[in-house]
Amino acid sequence: MFLGSVIVVCVLCGAAAMENGTSCAEVRQVFVMRGIGAAHLVPDTWTEGKDSNLCPSSQTCCSKSMESKYEEAGRKDLKNLLQGADSYLKTLISTSATKFRGNIYSKCLLQEQPSTFSDA
């Protein structure tokens, strides 16, 4: 999931640079609005991404420092997603265990009940 997000961002960085001539203004706006990093990390105009690990392109608005911020944001998003799923699963297991214990207890009571009535 994280890698997919990074790839989409890299494609958008390159597409925005080509669409606007050489301006990276739209990329800067999204980068800052999403809280990924500061505006000064985004280049003013497209650059070559040949030294880039995640956004290797001849025209990109993604800098090396932006890559590390995107990685950080991706890790944080993934961690939050996993914690949410973990919390849901814990609740589901706990609820199921409680219901199971209740069913077992009810069956035990029903099995003991006839013998109690026959003794009286």
TrEMBL record:
GO terms for cellular component: cell surface; extracellular region; plasma membrane; side of membrane. The keyword Manganese does not apply. Transmembrane segments: none annotated. Its main location: membrane. GO terms for biological process: cell migration; positive regulation of canonical Wnt signaling pathway; regulation of protein localization to membrane. InterPro entries: Glypican. The keyword Nucleotide-binding does not apply. It is found in: Cell membrane. It is a lipid-anchor; GPI-anchor. Belongs to the glypican family. This is Glypican-1. Cell surface proteoglycan. It comes from the Eukaryota. Keywords: Cell membrane, Glycoprotein, GPI-anchor, Heparan sulfate, Lipoprotein, Membrane, Proteoglycan, Signal. Pfam families: Glypican. It comes from Araneus ventricosus. Residues 1-17 form the signal peptide.
